[in-house]
Amino acid sequence: MDYVFDFAALRPYCDVLAKGLLETAIYALLSILFGLTLGAICALTLVYARRGWRRVVRCYVEFFRNTPSLVQLFLIYFGLPSLGLHLSPPVAGIIALSLYCGAYMTEILRAGFLSLPRGLTEAGEALGLSKRQIITHVLTLPAMQNVFPALASQMVLTLIGTSLISQIGVEEIFHSGSFVDSRTFRSFEIYLLICGLYFFAVSLMKVLLRILWYRFQARR
Questions:
Q1: pTM (predicted TM-score)
Q2: Crossing angle for the helix pair 51-65 and 89-114, to the nearest 10 degrees
């Protein structure tokens, strides 16, 4: 093997990679927040809403869970302009990731709501709470606690999935790495470094989620 590793060639581009890592964290955070919000709304719809609304949500969930996320991204970024809706690459990327994440969050949270004992709802009704108050103050937190490991796994997958939005020119870590590769031609080194940066980001997220899990447990 004659290949000589030269990570020093990447040193002038540390600021580019650092910016890309920060952008990845921002896109992942926004996609997770929007996806979790969407998932909660859709899960509540599937469990408590009328049949018509449940069918609409089910169509959304089945579509985004059973088609490739890259195709969904291209459909939003390249397809919507044909209908007169032009989105910037970051906005299109966040929308695509949020919709994809939200579809999986929906099923996870739906399982969480269905796992709750009927007694919680009855206790809320006995206290004179409205249906909205029961869902908000009585059911939501226990449901999230029951499925938190699955939610955490989906959040990690969403973070890793941000690499897809580089395909439409979003300047996240993978896009930054490709730029550095085009300047240094050190493909093995740069993509190995990108793997390390993703590993670092995922490990940090797992630590934060573990802290959040312990706080959930402490409130039980």
A1: 0.90
A2: 120
Phi, psi (degrees; rounded to nearest 5) at 193: -65, -40
Q: How many residues does the chain have?
A: 220
The token duo for 158 is 């969403």
d(CA 169, CA 165) in angstroms, rounded, equals 7
Q: Which two tokens stand for residue 105?
A: 């969050």
Spell out the residues 6+ positions from residue 63 whose beta carbon is closer than 8 angstroms to its own: 103
Burial of 214 (0-12, 13-18, 19+ CB in 10 A): exposed
What is the biggest distance separating any 2 CA atoms in the chain, rounded to whole angstroms? 76
Q: Residue 180 contacts by C-beta under 8 Å, 6 or more apart in sequence? A: 10, 13, 16, 17, 186, 190
Q: Which residues contact 189 (CB under 8 A, 6 or more apart)?
A: 5, 6, 7, 9, 10
Alpha-carbon distance of 162 to 32, in angstroms, equals 11
The pLDDT tens digits for 4-59 are 888 888 999 999 999 999 999 999 999 999 999 999 999 999 988 889 999 999 99
For residue 79, the one-letter residue type is G
Helix H segments across 11-164?
A: 14-48, 51-65, 69-74, 89-114, 118-126, 131-133, 140-146, 148-161
Using alpha carbons, list the distances in angstroms from residue 105 to 88, 102, 185. Answer: 25, 5, 40
